[in-house]
Amino acid sequence: MRLPVLVFDIETLTDLKSGAHLYGLDLPVADLAQALVKLRRQESGVDFQRLALHEIVCISGLWIDEQGSMKIFSFSREQHSESEILTKFLSIFDKRNPTLVSWNGSQFDLPVILFRAMYHGLSAPSLFDQGEIDQQKRYNNYQNRYHHRHVDLMDIMAMFNGRHFQKLDDVAHLLGYPGKRGDGAYHVPEYVHQQEWQKLTSYCEADVLNTWLVYLRWLLLKGQLLLNDYRDLVQQTIQFLSTQAQHADFLAIWRDTSQRTEFTAVDFISFPTH
């Protein structure tokens, strides 16, 4: 495992202002969302908006440094504009070149970040350079599908075949991790509109944590982690989450789901029950 590692995820809403501008709509704000959904259905047959119209309301990350210490963080609309969220996230790459880990990051998260950074006139060469500035990134950059500076687990585990794409929730749950079972609904619009920022960041961070656990299992599969090292990192993750009050539910669900597979049944043996 090449450290540092940054596991990340974004949450978005439809940018109504940009959508109105793109389609030339002169409607009250209350009617815009429904109009944009109808237009999108006519275009593509689905409700999911084109990437450039996804306004970022939260970016969460789990940072694992060279010493193996962990830190989880979120930049959300509670305190920051979208431009400020992006600036803070992109500045990480100006200082460090972490291994970036995501689920569907190649097809969603990074393209959305690209479009929204351009929308706000931001510069992010450390993330989007493909060798024009740093020649080393010609051979290992964050955009190339087959480079491992950015590990998109959904793409890799599907062996780069879209017919094999899986949901993070399903894969995590299948492997004995929490996923989002019991509450699979998409709550982001509700959290933003009701200004429930703690729920928003916990929701986003849960995806980050599930992605991290799947990443560890993928490294074990590839032989980049030995079994003892894998077990140590799982225990370290459990110990870390035990200090994070906002993830007590995640830890409790993990304790339960870990018992559903023989391999993960030992995850909490050394962790006391409170």
From TrEMBL:
Entry keyword Cell cycle: no
Gene Ontology terms, MF aspect: exonuclease activity
Protein's name in the database: 3'-5' exonuclease
A family per Pfam: DNA_pol_B_exo2
UniProt KW keywords: Exonuclease, Hydrolase, Nuclease
Domain of life: Bacteria
CDD domains reported for this sequence: DNA_polB_like1_exo
Residues annotated as domain Predicted 3'-5' exonuclease PolB-like: 47-251
